[in-house]
């Protein structure tokens, strides 16, 4: 049994920010000529006087956002991760993060799903970059419900927030009663053989993988981490204590992202055997979403197979095990 | 004698006296603290004087006043010039200038709005501040405010591509309450070599900045950036702009007011030694004696 498909995060983004702007006159949207892709167009239709086309000039756009925030507005950014984070990184660092200005960097097209755009648009290191930046809250919601919750919360928080959003429809995980709690990880499943820790739209695939593992006789706990920074250290340590084996899974490089954050945390607070699944220090490529998930080992079946292999071969408690996260390098 | 903390208005002679005082504080701060970008701070001193002692509607005693005019030092490395201006204007005690760039100081090497009230934006990386100024102007207009926004850029800074992204967007939105002033001191930190290693070429050819800002849809006013009456006149003209932002290209001299620093690229960031300091103070009309200083 697999989780059903939900609505695309970008649709939820356009609708939710638009709804927030109904209640808060300070909310504006700055668009880098991609409103028709990010669904910023929904906001423009509802609030044309507070939607600002910034053109294909993203460095300036993030700087304008800082200036607007400094006079009391709450800018939401409409563009892809590549152009919301990577291109204007110095503007984010100097004008937004260090002065703690109230800008919401709500970036679409995170991870591998970029409408087959490929390596330029697939940013695989944004979590690493943004969580390393002082003052930057880093959020990665799992599905449509949580995306709406995260966006609603972001408007209540005074300061810079990075929200990582996926282009296409992803699996639906949370019911409408779900409430996002800033800084809290969400325990989705109990299991003492292995603890799976995931974030973003990878989490529903990990939940499905845990079902498959259960059918194979492995009880996997699943912890979802929507708030990458600040990290829920207590929940992570507790999750590790339950199984003594932790695997992180993310649609992102294994270097410095969720896996890096968990490794840092457990190394300091509760040294635990850890494996990281994700992009193994490689760039993406253009292909269908399903093909990409298979190729990079992130589909539910591939995750289940990789963890099964890990459990069967037994990493042991001593000696170096082959880190499965690097197997993609040879593909 | 200037009374610290007061706006001066249109009195050119008094503004020139304020500018002299600001230059003294710039040189003193750089010499005493051993750090700071003196050349660009001296070239911008007259422009900052005109802004803070005549043009800007600000309240030093209430630096967060919501309806104040905004100022962004996009050429953030020339922070000493801004700090000296703010101190003389009464935002904080002049003596605090000697904390410049030291641990815990509100006067960071590059402006930090989270530390010092009166700074409207944090800057430092070139090419960033003008974008923030565009956002301030556009945001203020969106909020229905009538305040004006000013940004000061370096001519070397205009090599940054993001400056032109900002210029394009500001014109596209017809931000006539926005003024960009370019401190055209015709030298950057190192620049291109001319006939000799000591001869550094200007960041742009004569007229190039006028043509570029004009091509981007801005109304351009060219002035001598050390001629106080011209600066005041340009700022007045800018106030009457309709439908497009204004760029004031102010031709200046790097190190202005200190003979050995004028027009010398090395003084972009260099600290005067004791002899140079004494000479600079004499030239600026300030008497320096061993162990103490007596103000003229």
In short:
Chain A has 331 residues and is α/β, with parallel strands linked by helices.
Explain what the structure shows:
The complex is a heterodimer of chains A (331) and B (296). By secondary structure, chain A is α/β, with parallel strands linked by helices. Chain A folds into 2 domains: 8-171, 3-Layer(aba) Sandwich (Rossmann fold), CATH 3.40.50.970; 186-330, Rossmann fold (3-Layer(aba) Sandwich), CATH 3.40.50.920. In chain A, 40% of the residues lie in helices and 21% in strands. Chain A is built from 13 helices and 14 strands. In chain A, the strands form 3 sheets. Chain A has a 7-stranded mixed sheet with strand order 3-2-4-5-7-6-12, sandwiched between helices. In chain A, strands 9-11-10-13-14 form a 5-stranded mixed sheet, with helices on both faces. In chain A, α1 runs parallel beside α8 (144-156) and α4 packs parallel to α6 (89-97). The two termini of chain A are 29 Å apart. The model of chain A is unreliable at 316-331 (pLDDT under 50). Chain B has 296 residues and is of the alpha/beta class. Chain B has one domain (12-294): Thiamin diphosphate (ThDP)-binding fold, Pyr/PP domains (Rossmann fold, 3-Layer(aba) Sandwich), CATH 3.40.50.970. Helix content of chain B is 36%, strand content 12%. Chain B has a 5-stranded parallel sheet with strand order 1-2-3-5-4, with helices on both faces. A two-stranded antiparallel sheet of chain B has the order 6-7. The longest helix of chain B has 22 residues, at 12-33. The radius of gyration of chain B is 18 Å and the shape is globular. Classes of the chains: A alpha/beta (331), B alpha/beta (296). At the A-B interface, α4 and α6 of A face α5 and α6 of B.
């Amino acid at each position: 049994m697999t989780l059903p498909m939900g609505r695309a995060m970008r649709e939820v983004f356009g609708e939710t920010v638009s709804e927030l702007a109904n209640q808060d006159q300070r909310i504006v949207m700055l668009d880098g000529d991609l409103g028709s892709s990010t669904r910023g167009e929904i906001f423009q239709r509802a609030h044309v006087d507070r939607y600002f086309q910034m053109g294909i000039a993203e460095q300036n756009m993030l700087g304008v956002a800082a200036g607007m925030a400094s006079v009391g507005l709450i800018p939401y950014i409409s563009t892809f991760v590549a152009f919301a984070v990577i291109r204007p990184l110095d503007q984010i660092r100097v004008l937004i993060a260090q002065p703690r200005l109230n800008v919401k960097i709500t970036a679409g097209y995170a991870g591998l799903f970029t409408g087959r755009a490929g390596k330029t648009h697939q940013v695989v290191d944004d979590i690493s970059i943004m969580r390393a930046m002082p003052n930057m809250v880093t959020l990665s919601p799992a599905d449509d419900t949580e995306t709406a919750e995260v966006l609603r919360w972001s408007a209540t928080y005074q300061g810079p927030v990075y929200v990582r959003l996926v282009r296409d429809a992803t699996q639906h995980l949370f019911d409408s009663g779900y409430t996002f709690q800033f800084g809290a990880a969400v325990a989705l499943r109990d299991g003492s053989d292995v603890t799976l820790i995931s974030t973003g739209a990878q989490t529903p695939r990990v939940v499905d993988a845990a079902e498959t593992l259960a059918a194979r006789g492995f009880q996997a706990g699943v912890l979802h981490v929507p708030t990458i920074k600040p990290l829920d250290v207590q929940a992570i340590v507790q999750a590790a204590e339950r199984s003594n084996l932790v695997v992180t899974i993310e649609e992102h490089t294994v270097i410095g992202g969720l896996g890096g954050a968990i490794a840092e945390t457990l190394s300091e607070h509760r040294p635990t055997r850890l494996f990281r699944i994700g992009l193994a220090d490689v760039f993406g490529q253009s292909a269908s979403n399903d093909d990409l998930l298979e190729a990079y080992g992130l589909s539910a079946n591939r995750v289940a197979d990789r963890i099964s292999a890990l459990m069967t071969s037994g990493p042991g408690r001593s000696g170096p095990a082959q880190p499965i996260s690097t197997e993609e390098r040879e593909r | 004698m200037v009374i610290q903390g007061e706006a001066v208005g249109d009195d050119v002679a008094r503004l020139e006296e304020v500018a002299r005082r600001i230059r003294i504080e710039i040189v003193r701060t750089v010499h005493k603290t051993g750090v700071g970008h003196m050349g660009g701070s001296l070239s911008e001193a007259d422009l900052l004087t005109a802004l803070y002692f005549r043009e800007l509607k600000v309240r030093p005693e209430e630096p967060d006043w919501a309806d104040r005019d905004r100022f962004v030092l996009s050429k953030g490395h020339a922070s000493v010039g801004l700090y000296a201006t703010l101190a003389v204007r009464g935002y904080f005690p002049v003596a605090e200038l000697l904390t410049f760039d030291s641990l815990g100081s509100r006067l960071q090497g590059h402006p930090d709005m989270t530390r010092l009230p009166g700074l409207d934006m944090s800057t430092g990386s070139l090419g960033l501040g003008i974008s923030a100024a565009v956002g301030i102007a556009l945001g203020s207009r969106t909020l229905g405010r009538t305040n004006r926004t000013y940004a000061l850029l370096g001519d070397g800074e205009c090599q940054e591509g993001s400056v032109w992204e900002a210029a394009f967007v500001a014109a596209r939105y017809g931000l006539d309450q926005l003024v960009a002033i370019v401190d055209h001191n015709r030298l950057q930190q190192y620049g291109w070599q001319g006939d000799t290693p000591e001869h550094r070429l200007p960041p742009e050819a004569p007229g190039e900045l006028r043509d570029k800002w004009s091509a981007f849809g801005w109304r351009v006013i060219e002035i001598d950036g050390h001629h106080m009456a011209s600066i005041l006149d340009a700022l007045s003209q800018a106030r009457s702009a309709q439908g497009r932002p204004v760029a004031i290209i102010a031709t200046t001299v790097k190190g202005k007011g200190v003979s050995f620093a004028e027009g010398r690229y090395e003084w972009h960031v260099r600290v005067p030694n004791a002899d140079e300091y004494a000479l600079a103070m004499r030239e600026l009309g300030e008497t320096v004696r061993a162990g103490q200083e007596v103000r003229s």
